[in-house]
Design a protein that fits this description.
Rossmann fold, GMP Synthetase, Chain A, domain 3, 9 helices, 35% helix, binds guanosine-5'-triphosphate, binds magnesium ion
Amino acid sequence: MIYRAGFVALLGEPNAGKSTLLNALLGEKVSIVSDRPQTTRQRVHGIFSIPQGQIVFVDAPGTLKSTSGINTFLQEEVESVLHSADAVVVVLEPETSKESVTRLLDRAKASKRPFIVIVTKGDLLRGDQAPKAVETLIDSGLPFVVLSPLKRVEETRQEIVDKVLPLLPECEQPLFDEEMLTTEPMRKIAAEFVREACFKNIKDEVPYGLAVRVSKYEEPYGDKPVTKIYCDIIVERSTHKGIVIGAKGQMIKAIGMEARKALETLIGGQVFLDLHVDVREGWTSNKRLMKELGYVVVKE
Ligand SMILES: Nc1nc2c(ncn2[C@@H]2O[C@H](COP(=O)(O)OP(=O)(O)OP(=O)(O)O)[C@@H](O)[C@H]2O)c(=O)[nH]1
Ligand SMILES: [Mg+2]
């Protein structure tokens, strides 16, 4: 048997379903998801180990054209993820326009990595009219599969593994411990779960100018099996602070409850979560502040 292992970048437009796909492949939530574009900001590694090999999926931000604010960082992050990948999975929504499909395929080709193409959200397809992305792919002559990571997890996993593993280099041994699901530290995942809860609860633009940082993380000790996590929610305008806290603190309470539940599921134990809101005026357009909050591309 040939053992293979490597890094596989997930490439797609914002909101295409890349993070949902990663979580489905791992059977555990390691990357945050929302129904709004530009949820993922930094790469998230998800490790999938089987006897025949190890696939390290790398979730990334969606591809963008805009260069304002944090978008420059997001694009650099996509480029860096592609650069350090051994192979690429192009993730397309069924209704992706012909121009966008072409642009993404060109980008995958330009990466000079072997790639596969999937159309995701297959469960949403109705009737017999082929969606735009499918039409474009048929015209292009490239092979592709339609999958439903949210509904048909087993089939998705099988298809992706069968198609991706042969693209990876031969390897003597796994790249990471086979028990490991992600390389992300729990502190970072905790901060991301809080950011996800912000995306879900705050309906306007505020989540786009918000960052979360864990100030203290205490593992359970003694006879109290509680993980204690203290987070700062950083907003870019003082008017946003009131929105995040909400009338009588209702908003921050809802955010805290939702994030705590998700963290308890992942950790498998009780969590105490403390949230504090801080203002860093205009941080999304300040390189130094962005770096301080972790938004700087780490070259691998
Ligand atoms: N019905 C259905 N919805 C899906 C499926 N996959 C993803 N979604 C939904 O699509 C939306 C976007 O999903 P994400 O996984 O956050 O998309 P993403 O590509 O990671 O987005 P960014 O991080 O913004 O680039 C969410 O509301 C998901 O629930 C699917 O297979 N079926
Ligand atoms: Mg995402």
